[in-house]
Fold:
Amino acid sequence: KSRKKNQYMNNKRIWLSLAHMGGQEQQFIQEAFDTNWVVPLGPNVDGFEKDLENYLGENKHIVALSAGTAAIHLALVQLGVGPGDEVICQSFTFSASANPIKYLGANPVFVDSEPDTWNMDPELLREAIEDRIRVTGRKPKAIIPVHLYGMPAKMDEIMTIACAFEIPVLEDAAEALGAEYKGQKCGTFGEFACLSFNGNKMITTSGGGALVCSTKEEADFTKHLATQARDNAPHYQHSKVGYNYRLSNICAGIGRGQMMVLQQHVEARRRINLKYRQLLAGVPGISFQSNPTTDFNSNMWLTCIVVDPAVAGFSREELRLAMEQENIETRPLWKPMHLQPVFADTPYYGNEAKVSERLFDDGLCLPSHPNLTEEDLQRVVDVIKGLAEM
Ligand SMILES: *Cc1c(COP(=O)(O)O)cnc(C)c1O
Structure:
């Protein structure tokens, strides 16, 4: 295939997703040093939790933790998940959605996605619940839908089914901070939700996460579990198995600074997505993950495209390699959990549409961070147009 020669002077690496500091982060960290709060817990942790509560609304109670994965783990502990239990989880996701199920000796049951949002298919969810009850005689203990790449899952349908079977929902909103469904923030629909502040997410604390809780009691209990479940006594006494999962006051300082620019980040990622759509309009065989209706408002964490090789004349993998040659980092979409070696023999509910398998075969994440320049975007688009011989 012929490709336009790189006409850009600047061939610096374009990364998929980079952290972007707002400017206030170091001041919060300096305050922590000045007041000797260089510990887990402290004023930055309290402030960061308040900022998140104000941002998400819906009277949620938030506990800052060392990782999003820790948040999922502590939610499952509180939902009573234990050895031999089953937890329904979206198959099309990052392994961190499902691993904590295994930490507890429980077993995931994977459910495929529907083609509109790429998230949990409500029909397959119902089928999975009914079948698990038939097969095991017991209800799954929880349902974990994911708002993948910041796209809200079909929460009305999912919550209706969850309510009908009285199974609690734990939203994985790790990628979805700032996304909305029917005007309500993702992460506020379930009994619990996890957020992530890893380096590549919507905002970062260098590493960190949070558990969104529905009651103050849940939040207090989360804090208790996350600080080694220490009883109220002058000596160290424990009646439960605890965890060391709290966020450090230094990392929370970064988080407070990031909260000041969160809305800017969301707007920047949406603007980048729109720009890609404009620049790639008319390229045959390229489609986008898109808000299916105005009920959905993705934060566009990563712009994701799907290459139809029969129409485009090139495959996703050819495109990825061409990008790499131009020093541009892209990545295939998440490999579904039901295809992962670690989860072989795990029950899976899908249908002939094979939505996540097709997305894994043909999908690509494009560079999407807020500091991308117009020239960066043009370089990315030129690789696609070059392969399309446009
Ligand atoms: C990043 C991520 C997590 C885990 O968050 P960490 O903070 O990295 O532990 C969980 N689920 C999804 C979908 C993620 O993308």
About this structure: The mean pLDDT is 95. DSSP finds 13 helices and 15 strands in the chain. Residues 67-69, 93-94, 96-97, 146, 172, 174-175, 196, 198, 209 surround pyridoxal-5'-phosphate (CB under 6 Å).
